[in-house]
């Protein structure tokens, strides 16, 4: 069975705030450790990945080396579209083009243009040409840290949206190349990241439905982040709660009462997480759990441990 890390493009999407960028960084690290020349691409104003590896962020569109066989890049869709329009306009300066109203008019009149130009840049990174050049291609694995679910679907469906407008010329050919890459099961894999909560899992399922509708594709897996261990059996929890003295004497805190409440809270949260994972499995979706990390900020060693776990499961 082909691993998700064996594709040219690995799209990581999901609800904001679920650790998506961390998982994308870990997947990129897993790919690099497997000997593949890998780049992790963020979209928009985000540039979190270099920080995870303790490396200064580069300018938009600049590939920054963050580890052995591992690079990072941020793509600004507005800037990408402006560069594309500037290329069409020949010697017209980017500043003049941006202030002329042409940029705003074109962006509004051409649905999916910014998203498509962004996807064309990502597609170029998967190409074998220009190996080693700044911002060039030649990467064996491109990990796309996609925007939150709704915007991610807009990004991924941009070839179909914009393709209805651009039917001839260079951009039409690039549109077809991007569409073919996204629809190729051997070329692209899609992974969602979620927490074990109703809202995050619902969004992952919406992503699955959107991929089927727009691309005829499915999620390879859902990474459920921040899982708590199931520490107690029902019998053990009953024994703990039997020791609860109800709070002790009036006005005095009770250690046994606090401990019993904490045990119940952890048990219930773990149970709810397992129930949400069961929702995903009922849709025949592969589920990969990542344990909760008990620290204020993830260290690179912890990201490395996550990378090892994901490499084994995906």
Sequence-ordered SSE layout with sheet pairings:
Elements (H helix, E strand, L loop, with lengths): L8 E6 L5 H14 L4 E6 L5 H4 L11 E4 L2 E6 L1 H12 L5 H6 L2 H8 L3 H13 L15 E5 L3 H8 L1 H6 L6 H14 L4 E8 L2 H18 L5 E7 L6 H9 L12 H28 L4 E5 L8 H14 L1
Parallel strand pairs: 1-5, 1-6, 2-4, 2-5, 6-7, 7-8
Antiparallel strand pairs: 3-4
Helix pairs in contact: 1-13, 3-6, 6-9, 7-10
Chain-averaged pLDDT: 83
Low-confidence stretches: none
Compute the CA-based radius of gyration. 23 Å
Overall strand count: 8
What is the count of distinct domains? 1
* Strand percent estimate: 5-15%
Helical run tally:
13
SS-derived structural category: alpha/beta
Give a description of the structure.
The chain is α/β, with parallel strands linked by helices and 314 residues long. The chain has one domain (4-230, 285-313): 3-Layer(aba) Sandwich (Rossmann fold), CATH 3.40.50. It is 49% helix and 15% strand. The protein has 13 helices and eight strands. Helix 1 (20-33) crosses helix 13. The model has no long low-confidence stretch (mean pLDDT 83).
What descriptive keywords fit this protein?
314 residues; alpha/beta; Rossmann fold; 8-stranded mixed sheet; 13 helices; 8 strands; 49% helix; 15% strand
Summarize the structure.
The chain has 314 residues and is α/β, with parallel strands linked by helices. It has helices at 20-33, 49-52, 77-88, 94-99, 102-109, 113-125, 149-156, 158-163, 170-183, 198-215, 234-242, 255-282, 300-313, and strands at residues 9-14, 38-43, 64-67, 70-75, 141-145, 188-195, 221-227, 287-291.
